[in-house]
Amino acid sequence: MLGQIAYALPFLAQGFAVTLWVSLLVVALSLVAGVMMGVGLVYGPAPLRWVVRIFSDTIRGIPILVLIFFVYYGLPAVGIHLESFWAAVLALTLFKTAQVIEYLRGAVGSIPKGQSEASMAIGLTFRQRLAYVIFPQAFRRFLPPWINGVTDAVKGSALVSLLGITDLMHAINQVIGRTYEAMPLYILGAVIYFAVNYALSLASRRLERRFSFIRE
Amino acid sequence: MGYTLNFNLIWRNFDKLWGGLLLSLELAVISIAIGIVIGLLLAVWYVSAGRVVRTVIAGYVEFIRNVPLILLVYLVFYGLPTVIDVAYSAQTSFVATLSLYSGAYLVEVFRSGLEAVPRGQIDAGKAIGLTPWQRLLHVRLPTMLRITLPALSNTFISLFKDTSVASVISVPELTYGAQWINFNTFRIVEVYLVVTAMYLFTGYALLYALRLVERRFRVAH
Amino acid sequence: MSTHANPALLDVSEVSKSFGSVEVLRSVSLQVTRGEVVTVIGPSGSGKTTLLRCVNFLESYDSGSIRIDGKEVGFRETGTRQRRSERDLAAMRAETGMVFQSFNLFPHLTAAGNIMLGLRKVRGKSSAEARQIAEHWLGRVGLAHKADSLPAELSGGQQQRVGIARAVAMEPKILLLDEITSALDPELVGEVLEVVRSLAEDGMTMVMVTHEMAFARDASSRIVFMADGGVSAAGPPAEILGAEIDNERLRSFLARFRASHF
After folding, report:
1. ipTM of the assembly?
2. Same domain, residue pair C178 and C200
3. Minimal-distance CA residue of chain A relative to C54
4. Distance between CA atoms of B126 and B120, rounded to whole angstroms?
5. Which of B24, C8, C72, C200 has its CA 20 to 30 A from that of B42?
6. What is the model's pLDDT at position B217?
């Protein structure tokens, strides 16, 4: 039994690499999109705020799995052909972007209005206010939940196995299909996911504690 | 884009979606009910227990929170029966998984809720001569439940969404219904539009209703 | 432009503003010439702070005009009441300094950093030059030794003095002071007012909203009394705070004020 699993380890490692790659792409893309849309939600004109609000509430209101199926099966039907890998990345990015929007809104919203006013009063432009006054302060409120939320991307990435992408989850199922050693492999998989995510949540908690010493 | 929307086939198979939605709700309700029991017991045990018990409970909570739900679903449905002598339907297996899953999240919710009960209330309970059990039952738990109600609502809504994972072991809930129609009629965009609307409407209606309940209880706070 | 025909550095002309159905400013006019120190007093809700916030366009206004050195503050000179671009507004705001009731120091920057930010990003000064200016002004407000302290490490009075230094370091044409001692413990008020007094002696043009009547009497060249969103009385301190003023509202304001503050 152990021999069979050892034999499968390189294959599982490849799957794990895909899991990390998907997670990394999703985290990076959603950070950019989410911060931009979050700024739109907080500072944008009313129509833009509505669009972002509806986007975020819709995405957060449906299961990730539905989002993944919708993107994967729906896009080809309307003539957009994406590889299953990119369809999965797109769907997970949409999901994660909605989260980032809310983290950003929370972080920026926690900064007193006086900070914006004081920076306006010395003549900073909108971009300068964000860059030198708002974001540096919002950063420490944004970072802990965001890092903690990276675990959602890693966990969510396991759903891409359903599109036939050989991530860690899919690799585990394939090895089980050959070896019939279900329980050891699921436990091994759980341990790997746990190790990655637990490390992330520890990092998040540590940051939160470190930042809590900074006074207003 | 030459795609024209045609919902006829969706309406003709709507019973698959409607039945699926009801099953999703049922799965969520049963799971949170069991999850609340697990969460309450473990939270009360945690705050009064020694180091070892605390570590074990924390281990359970952290394990569940850091492993993908889909893996837990596979593990319980395909994995467990290979090592212990149990036989259960996909649905039972999923309810067991989601209960353990929600239980882990709720331990955290209830534990922080118990710790948020003001010291003065416990002292007041002591002052009128309540035993520790009576204090727990009549002072700490009612106050804690009131404090944790919003988090409880949120957990329930996300469990409702999480029931979609049951589709991977062919439990005929809403997402499974959507996939069935998808594969049998190929009205892909339509079925997912309808299902998205169903999840959204149900989720936000639940949220609204639960917020009303919360407001009723908050007055007494 | 016939700026020479109008010597006012700040020219507020018939400015009105409503929040919803509440009219907070009713056709307010006010001229301030270079070097003047104008104090605005009045009961809360009389529009003092709103007026001040309109001068650097932290608030927009519905009608009328506000000019600094002949230039319309918030709107383009086309007469269409089109807001200035973000860049123009920022440039206009850099010409006015503002000190806030709640200090509003940037908590992530040191005292010197607070002062240097505008100098570097708005005035385009080098880091070294900005640092020099910051140190000069910190010295002026008696905080040379606190240049590298974070706001959280300073007392309220010290924070507000940094707030003043941050505003004046930009060399504004006019300084707006919005109840700058209201959030301070009584024993810290003096040190802040002392700084304001020394700026006044230097000839800094100032408009301040304050409840410090004694200070208003000593330091202002003119006092404006606002009530119900309009200017109810204006004149030299001796006249406005004097006993024989013929303005019922002002008299009852001052009577109530003295009753509650002395």
Report:
1. 0.90
2. yes
3. A121
4. 10
5. B24
6. 78
Q: How many folded domains does chain C comprise?
A: 2
Same-domain status, C154 and C182:
no
One-letter-per-residue 3-state SS of chain B: CCCCCCCHHHHHCHHHHHHHHHHHHHHHHHHHHHHHHHHHHHHHHHHHCCHHHHHHHHHHHHHHHCCCHHHHHHHHHHHHHHHCCCCCCHHHHHHHHHHHHHHHHHHHHHHHHHHHCCHHHHHHHHHCCCCHHHHHHHHHHHHHHHHHHHHHHHHHHHHHHHHHHHHHHCCCCHHHHHHHHHHHHCCHHHHHHHHHHHHHHHHHHHHHHHHHHHHHHHHCC
Name every chain B residue with its beta carbon within 8 A of the beta carbon of A169: 68, 70-71
Query: Are C77 and C203 members of one domain?
Result: yes
pLDDT value at residue C137: 96
In a domain, C101, yes or no: no
Structure confidence at residue C44 as a pLDDT band (50, 70, 90)? confident
Stretch A92-105: mean pLDDT: 96
* Chain C CB contacts of A215 below 8 Å: 107, 152
Confidence tier at C105 by pLDDT (50, 70, 90)? very high
Nearest CB among C102, C103, C170 relative to A122 is that of C170
Q: Where does a domain end: C143, C171, C199?
A: C171
A199 in contact with B, Cβ within 8 Å: no
Interface membership of C104 toward A (CB under 8 Å): yes
- Residues C70 and C178 placed together within one structural domain of the fold: yes
Cβ <8 Å between A215 and C107 = yes
What residue in A sits closest to C123 (Cα-Cα)? A123
Residue in C2, C171, C170 with CA at minimum distance from that of residue C70: C2
Full residue range of the structural domain in which residue C59 is found: 3-95+174-261
Q: Do residues C10 and C84 both lie within one domain?
A: yes
> C196 and C143 in one domain?
no
Which contacts (CB < 8 Å, 24+ apart) does range A136-142 have? A136/C108, A137/A111, A137/C106, A137/C107, A137/C108, A138/A104, A138/A107, A138/A108, A138/A110, A138/A111, A139/A107, A140/A207, A140/A211, A140/A214, A141/A106, A141/A107, A141/A110, A141/A211, A142/A103, A142/A104, A142/A106, A142/A107
Considering the domain architecture, whether residues C112 and C52 belong to the same structural domain is answered as no
Q: Does residue A174 surpass a pLDDT of 60?
A: yes
A4 touching C, CB under 8 A?
A: no
Residue B98: exposure state from Cβ atoms within 10 A (0-12, 13-18, ≥19): buried
Tell me: do C123 and C217 sit in the same domain.
no
**Check: CATH 2.102.10.10 for B8-219?**
no
**Could you give the domains of chain A?**
2-212 (1.10.3720.10)
C vs B contact (3+ beta-carbon pairs below 8 A): no
- Minimal CA separation from A45 to chain C, in Å: 14
Please name the residues between 148 and 167 in chain C that touch chain A, using a CB distance below 8 Å: 152, 166-167
CB–CB of A66 and B178 under 8 A?
yes
Residue of A nearest to B4 (CA): A78
CATH number at residue C197: 3.40.50.300
Mean pLDDT of B156-177: 94
A128 touches chain C (CB under 8 A): yes
